[in-house]
Amino acid sequence: MSARDSILGKIRASMGSPASNDDRRRTVADRLGSAPAGIIPERAKLAEAERIELFCAMAEQFGATLARVGSYGEVAGEVSGYLRDRNLPATIRIGADKRLKAAGWETEKNLELRHGPSDGSDMTGVSHATAGIAETGTVAMMSGQDNPTTINFLPEHHIVVIKAGDIKGDMESVWAMVREKQGKGEMPRALNLITGPSRSGDIEQTILLGAHGPRALHVIVVD
Amino acid sequence: MELTANKFKANASKALVDAQLQKALGNVEKGFIGKRQKAADALPEFDALRDNARDIKNHTLAHLDLYLEEYERKVTAAGGHVHWAQTAEDARRIVLDICRKANARTVTKGKSMITEEIALNDHLEANGIEPVETDLGEYIIQLRGEHPSHIIAPAVHLNKEQVEGDFRRVHTHLASERDLSEPVSLLSEAREVLRQRYFAADVGITGANFLIAETGSSVIVTNEGNGDLTQTLGKVHVVVASIEKIVPTLEDTSQILRVLARSATGQDMSVYTTFSTGPKREEDPDGPDEYHVVLLDNGRSAMLGTEYQDMLRCIRCGACMNHCPVYHAVGGHAYGSVYPGPMGAVLTPSLNGIDETGQLPNASTFCGRCEAVCPMRIPLPKMMRHWREREFERNLTPAVARYGLKAWAFFAKRPKLYRFAASLGMPLLSLFGGTSRRFHALPLAGGWTRYRDLPAPEGRTFQQAWAQREALKQEAGH
Ligand code: SF4
């Protein structure tokens, strides 16, 4: 008997006298099909304006910095300002996301854009989020050419652009978006939920930012 | 690691006089308890979510075979491979095979208790493959040749001076006059050293907090980002996870995530929660070429349908040990097993048998804090009691403890007599087998006396004190 059959056999044997297999299969198929939502915290159920404010407040509480701009055209200026303020080199790593193409880079003549995944040598990376979660100030990132996963983790500074309209109240709304994009039961290769910059408490339980991932997370909300 | 659970009493005695350890252990109470409480208080739905999390896992365990089949189907459809391992040995062999096929010389590892359970590092090393732990705490204890003393804070038993000593000993390529006096400089140094290792590694190995049947995804929950670098930069990603990590849907995962980080570190969300589904796709610029999941049983299927089934709801948050007075006093290594604290005292006998681990279920004061904070509402004290009974039945208990239990059973059925005997200066305690007496006589026993009613410090029994208090209250009410 294969290891697989043996393990599954032991599990089945442990169930004593389970309901007929058909009933159990139906129960499982129903749950997978309907994916019931469970308990959604009240604070995730705010109307749009308050929701965006909660998202910003939460993200800041968990160590991100925040900027709000009126349009995509202002993103490049905000990025440049961020780099200048921190004396960072005027070079960013960026994927192929179309929304980021129209971010007004042409006005920032000194800024160098490197395209494709990060090779570990980048000081700053810029990505576009798929969605935000107001409940916890979290951004949701999907892998792919538009926003390579390595940009989320290798640069010292990670700048995430998010459309205000993509900020949802809860994680469950993000799953609805992902299902719409990918189909039910399908996921991108990697989906990263990111809440604040990388941290560690492993030395004497002292929380320090910038463990292995970015030391700083800057979120730009485009209204 | 070598199982020394049956030396718990000896290990604990040593731990209690280890000044370095005692200093470090102060951080457990300081660091975790208040943060969890604050996070729980800030979410009005917290307790309802705990109920729901418990129900989700109970439902999953009742249909585990079917959810596992569905999970396997989805992983395979996404281009991944599922390997079934009945024992630790099977799992080690499977992982080694994958590494060999990838011609791996070094593998990076994200933090994973399950690879501790199967003693993977030793096996890889013995076969000429170098495992590199990348979680800061895991990295530190790997340098020291130690094992984690806590399931989410593996190096919690150490002070920063000890870490500094290890870094100076091992990182000899760095200037010897560098300043490493602050935790932040230690962190930066580890970051620099490990950066190169991610890129050099052929295989990245992680555990999983969840396996999702609906999508075939594995989920890791971390704060440092090392797990993500491990699984993104290696050519091959191997997930090692036990069968009870399955949850049905993304929604179910979200419910449990809401209680996980709050219970563990007091965060609303950990920094990185990553859902991985299969290997790199055609349009992907990064990610692993191969994606493998090793599904480990190692005794878990035998827990189903027994009084220990509830233990399979555990999400390894660490709250039970963070709130355990025994853990506070002796630390994780004293347990002599992979999993320390209350969850370890229940799980280890299930995985390794009670013969080898009989002292663990006694490493408890039955104060009940672990169950009170467990996000999955696992009745840990009850299960420890079950193990004690089993141990008793099997006559493994030392004679004095056996006598003590019999005496206790005698008195427990005769409450009046118990009260009387207890009022005679509490000599009953000594009948309970020696452990209680040893512990309550300790100078560090604040943690016990805070949560339990025995022994009575002011020379009255708890029942006397309580009766007196009630009488005073009534008088005041008149
Ligand atoms: S037993 Fe409960 S409290 Fe302890 S680690 Fe498991 S889930 Fe957390």
TrEMBL record, chain A:
SUPFAM superfamilies: NagB/RpiA/CoA transferase-like. Residues 124-222 form the LUD domain. Residues 1-25 are annotated as: Disordered. This is L-lactate dehydrogenase complex protein LldG.
Automatic annotation (TrEMBL), chain B:
This is L-lactate dehydrogenase complex protein LldF. Signal peptide: none annotated. Coiled coil: none annotated. GO terms for molecular function: 4 iron, 4 sulfur cluster binding; metal ion binding. It comes from Hoeflea halophila. NCBIfam families: LutB/LldF family L-lactate oxidation iron-sulfur protein. Pfam families: Fer4_8 (PF13183), LUD_dom (PF02589), LutB_C (PF11870). Residues 305-335 form the 4Fe-4S ferredoxin-type domain. Keywords: 4Fe-4S, Electron transport, Iron, Iron-sulfur, Metal-binding, Repeat, Transport. GO terms for biological process: lactate metabolic process.
